[in-house]
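Recall from the previous lesson that a structure prediction takes nothing but the amino acid sequence as input. Here we apply that procedure to FtsW/RodA/SpoVE family cell cycle protein from Streptomyces liangshanensis. The sequence below is the only information supplied.
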Amino acid sequence: MSVVTNTTTIGAIEAPSRRNTELAMLAFAVAIPIFAYLNVGLAINGKVPTGMLGYGLGIGLLAGIAHLVVRKFAPYADPLLLPLATLLNGLGLVVIWRLDQSPKLIRLSKLAYGAFSPDAPKQLLYSAIGIALFLAVLILLKDHRILQRYTYISMAVALILLILPAFFPAVNGAKIWISLGPFTIQPGEFAKIIIAIFFSGYLMVKRDALALASRRFMGLYLPRGRDLGPILAVWAMSILILVFETDLGTSLLFFGVFIVMLYVATERTSWIVFGLLMSAAGAVGVATFEPHVQGRVNAWLDPFGCYKTDKTGACQQIGDALLSFGSGGTLGTGLGQGHSDLIGFAANSDFVLSTVGEEFGLAGTMAFLLLYGLIVERGVRTALAARDPFGKLLAIGLSGAFAIQVFVVAGGVMGLIPLTGMTLPFVAYGGSSVLANWVLIGILIRISDTARRPAPAPAPSPDAEMTQVVRP
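The prediction returns the following tokens.
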């Protein structure tokens, strides 16, 4: 008996989309901030806060819409990025609302502005706009490789964004804001994304030339002289930003992202060493003649010894922040029961991590840093999975920018490095920061969707013939 069968090409195995996993994680990411909101209300007033229902519905609705759009337009994206960002954003809203209840901050606001305006509702509005931008990135950006076309345009836009604050008045000693009527914008938050796009396109073309070494010195491969041009130009630009705008945070972020991406593109350790040496030399040089930077360095070296001589307030802020961390202990004082509002106007922006350290304790602070570390890890995993060099560099650049910003903010508040004045992503009060970081998460999700999407099955050959299999 003979049986004739047809053999056809087997298509690619369908990879799991993990959208149900994302939905389950989003449920936890929404429930935890709602529980924290309830905890703050019970600790401060002894009753359930009146706005709890609206807050929970608002966060749940925004997270649900974001999930549906990801499920539709990026079905194979990383399942953890959206829940992690939602959880951090939600907890940040809770901490800001907790500080809005502080009698000291209410009194300071009335003395300074004549009235008190709570920041939590405004932060919730910024979060909604940020998620709208996140959705726009996923819907409009069909392929991240389209951004490669705008390599040099992005460089021009980034330079404009970095230079513009120099023409506006300084705020708290630093020129990092653009004032447009009642609105203020911090362009450095958006510039970090645009700079990563430029560096990705530039290094993808120039990485072979930058990887060449002319000689070896003390175990390091020294780059050729003509290849030092890009790093010298970026170093000079970061120093100019630091000098004219006294913005230590943006200059560190700008230069650090370039060095990280340069190392990833060339795999030369010498670029890291050169970058660290040049960064240290530039910071020391500027600190010797720039009073604002010098004041922050002095506050970092001896925060408790310069209370009377410091005119910028940095010493008192850092000293109070360190006392907040110390009083929090291992498990914290509990939400709503700390005194980090003594820091003053920067309690919900620059020094919001001190509230976390006091009321969540060392364990809670480590949990927050772990959430940030998971976002960076998922970004690096996306870079490793990306199939195109531009996507790899862009994912690592965005992840590096996010990691550097968290490090310089946390390091400044904890006294590890001088204070930079940047905001903690998703947690600190600030519209520019929330908007920019939601866009950053959107681009990472788009890259991860492309990287994890299964390859299409090969088209059947038109010359394929029927194969006869004879079975006895």
